[in-house]
Predict the structure of Putative Callose synthase 9.
Amino acid sequence: MRNLLEEFHCDHGLRKPTILGVREHVFTGSVSSLASFMSNQEASFVTLGQRVLANPLKVRMHYGHPDVFDRIFHITRGGISKASRIINISEDIFAGFNSTLRQGNITHHEYVQVGKGRDVGLNQIALFEGKIAGGNGEQVLSRDVYRLGQLFDFFRMMSFYVTTVGFYCCTMLTVLTVYFFLYGKTYLALSGVGEAIQDRADILQNTALDAALNTQFLFQIGVFTAVPMILGFVLEHGILMAVVSFITMQLQLCSVFFTFSLGTRTHYFGRTILHGGARYHATGRGFVVRHIKFSENYRIYSRSHFVKGLEVVLLLVVFLAYGYNKGGALSYILLSISSWFMALSWLFAPYLFNPSGFEWQKTVEDFREWTNWLLYRGGIGVKGEESWEAWWDEELAHIRTLRGRILETILSLRFFVFQYGIVYKLQLTGPDTSFTVYLLSWSVLAVLFLLFQVFTFSQKASVNFQLVLRLIQSISFLLVLAGLAVAVVLTDLSVVDIFACILAFVPTGWGILSIAVAWRPLIKKLHLWKSVRSLARLYDAGMGMFIFVPIAIFSWFPFVSTFQTRLLFNQAFSRGLEISLILAGNNPNTGL
């Protein structure tokens, strides 16, 4: 430490150092595969990354690491911390901004190493990355970044960009590229333009156009976020150890983790850009290696990963059903395997990396607890962990401004593309392409909404005529079944058309719901908020069941849980976990 403090008097360029940076050693990497991924990723940044940032790029800031500050320099130039807990939520890097803007010099030294524990559970890691991504979104909106961009020379400005907000901008653009690609393919499939262009390319023997239409993603986008970590392995341990470590991490499903992290960063960064109001997420930094309940995972990842993952799945299913592939099934697989991997990673990674996530007793208990949470109506003082309604209100809190409501409305319009395209592909409509078909589909949707209102009518408001209400609901249900049977027999409506209508109406309903919650004050004035809330509960129940059913199926097989434990944790912890399960017997509430 004495030698480190002497660095304040050494020559490090034009100015004396104001912050002395040191490297770290993350010692929690041996706990589990997740902890290993996080520690390796962190190690590449706190060693190789900061070494390059300090020299020659000269854009190293303070990142919450064990750096040593020149106290006199900082307290006489505006202080170390900033006042706002929203825009300055990443208070550590603003200390670096403050030092650099006031002509300070931040260095990095390798001969001192400080041990540090990182998050070891997926929820901790996701909340931490969400905080960092939200903080970067606020940095984009801050004066400090604007001033640094104005004052840096070109090379320092570009280096500063790519090592701070630029990384998150590129991450978001990567995910948006996948969305644009899939929506473009869906448009080509539903409009028939794709097949027409392919036929034209075949007739004219236009190989360039043919190659553009059959562009294939052969690499998974999430893997590229691990490139700095691999380079760090090469420099620190050599090429052979780097290859062995990379293969080991692939066997431990590191690609799933990095793809999942891609969605975390994109969601929180994008939401902060749209609405502002980044929040601090307390991760606890504890040694948390325990079973996380299904409902807790659902609350954390529902809007950030599950909704987006199901949207990607829907796009891929539509393209599979209506798209034109010259190469057949193989072409579709090569075209969509990367997107399928991303969608499935977003949907199931929280449960794949959940200790005892496929243990049958805990699965049953999780389902019971999730249904209780979903159906509990809540009230004053009830927290989101106890009631779905309270949690849903918390999830809508970020939509506050007129600008945010308009942007949410514009973004939600994409969900209406499905219905507009699919209704013209039904056997019932045939070759008819008039706008009347689309209007009739909206009338069918209105009838479905009225039926939903009938079946979800509040029991408290109908105490005096419960029998009449149940009779009406029963008659309505029978009429719907009879109407479908008659339509299938007497018209061209087929069973495939019914599933296609579901594929069309589900995203339309979500689009209507998204617009309704964006304009929450107006919907409340129209006395439609209870209906919107009931529809939202139905969608959350459907999404939860879509995710839960595969987990329950895999939980039937005992070897899946054993394989997961061996995959995720080190040998000593795996043995202890297996012994604890044996001792627990049939008690689902015991232990991890």
Q: What stands out?
A: The radius of gyration is 27 Å. Confidence is low (pLDDT under 50) at residues 588-592. The beta strands are 19-26, 68-69, 106-116. The first strand starts at residue 19 and ends at 26.
